[in-house]
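Quick one, T. Sequence first:
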Amino acid sequence: MVDASHAARSEIEKAARILADGGLVAFPTETVYGLGADATSAEAVARIFAAKGRPADHPLIVHIAHRDDLERFGADVSPDAAKLADAFWPGPLTVIVGRGPEIVPETTGGRDTVGLRMPDHPVALELLRTFGTVGSGAVAAPSANRFGGVSPTTAAHVAADLGNRVDVVLDGGPSRVGVESTIVELTGPEPLLLRPGGISVVELEAVLGRPVRDGRGGPSRASGMLNSHYAPDAEVILLDGGKPAKVELGPGDGLISTEIRPGGAPPVDGRRHWSLPGDASGYAAGLYATLRAADAAGVTRLFVVAPSHGDMLSAVMDRLAKAAANRR
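Structure tokens:
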């Protein structure tokens, strides 16, 4: 875990005041960096959508610092939602419950539900607690990048993407998990997985004592549910990670391999060929930074070998599939 000293106390206090005044603050979490605004202010939330170029009907996740905030900012909180919060907060889990009256409809894209999460990062938690003393304590925060692109896992990524659209960026070091939170909807008769992430379905089911159904089909109703998302500038072409494939890189081509490298691949050089761990957790931690490195290297067509195993395999495959999807 990154020590809170990465962002000085004075910086966090300044950021909390900016949030209270309706401004935008980018801050680190264990998953990715978030672009935050007061979730109880329609005007503040509108700045997020404008800065990202995000459709106004695409809901935002609300970040909170205290377990009791689930009942404060949520409504009709089910026993299942309470169980998962008790088991996994702080951590990379978002629970969708009814929207409480303090959260403005603009935060949730007009929906009567809201996604709530308590991040597992000392800087994020300190910011949220401090904001609770000068403001609402509820921070709406999607990833701190332009909509549809690769999420940021460092403060430098945020600065490169958003520049002066953000009032302040808190630096908490590289994100540990590397991909966004698991999202579970808990407003109906059965729990629904809307986005895989840092908490696996096996872990969710162990706590709930019943199945979690895949709810990713149909219209988008939570962050990250669009078919094309998390995409670099380069065209992404997925290769079968289970079978080494001969890849000959032409001009403008790049390759992300795993520890089991495809036959015929050039040496790993950090210019056109990058290697990530075969375990999905290690792969996830480096994935977004590597996609960004490929763009920085001018790669226009990026071949990607997926990881072969690990608890976060579903989450990584979800992100890779969306990065490779038809962008029209």
